[in-house]
């Protein structure tokens, strides 16, 4: 009889451990943070406000931070997009997603680019132009952008 009891306790402990892990992840990935899985065993917590932009490089994503640091993660950008703050980040190209809070200037008429505070100049694709304009209007409250 000790054996089934041990099995039930092990099952309960495994479920409790899993539940605690999910609750911990939900608490840590609150409105201002994102959890980046660096590898199978290593995760880091990053504040959204510290990310200036992301670049898709094949099956990898390069995170660019406001302090000039970079982090290459072995996951596609598509994995991270749902985790990012939808109000703050917008995809402007197949390979780039930017933090609207770090836009210093943009041109949507001729060159179609965004320049970030660090000087990075990123092209806006024709397909993403409308979405970018809509998001800039909403984020900054501009109404006269065309």
TrEMBL record:
One Pfam short name: LytTR
Keyword entries, A-Z: DNA-binding
Domain HTH LytTR-type: 36-138
SMART domains reported for this sequence: LytTR
Keyword DNA-binding: yes
Molecular function in Gene Ontology: DNA binding
Keyword DNA-binding: yes
Protein name per Swiss-Prot or TrEMBL: LytTR family DNA-binding domain-containing protein
Organism this protein belongs to: Arcicella aquatica
Organism phylogeny: Bacteria, Pseudomonadati, Bacteroidota, Cytophagia, Cytophagales
């Amino acid at each position: 009889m000790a054996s089934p009891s041990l099995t039930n306790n092990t099952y309960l402990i495994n479920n409790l451990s899993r539940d605690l892990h999910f609750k911990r992840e939900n608490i840590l990935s609150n409105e201002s943070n994102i959890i980046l899985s660096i590898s199978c065993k290593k995760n880091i917590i990053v504040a959204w406000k510290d990310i200036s932009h992301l670049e898709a490089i094949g099956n990898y994503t390069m995170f660019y931070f406001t302090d000039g640091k970079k982090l290459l993660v072995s996951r596609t950008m598509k994995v991270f997009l749902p985790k990012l703050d939808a109000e703050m980040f917008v995809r402007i190209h197949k390979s780039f997603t930017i933090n609207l809070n770090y836009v210093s200037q943009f041109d949507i008429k001729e060159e179609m680019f965004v320049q970030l505070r660090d000087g990075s100049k990123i092209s806006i694709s024709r397909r993403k132009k409308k979405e970018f304009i809509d998001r800039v209007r909403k984020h900054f409250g501009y109404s006269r952008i065309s």
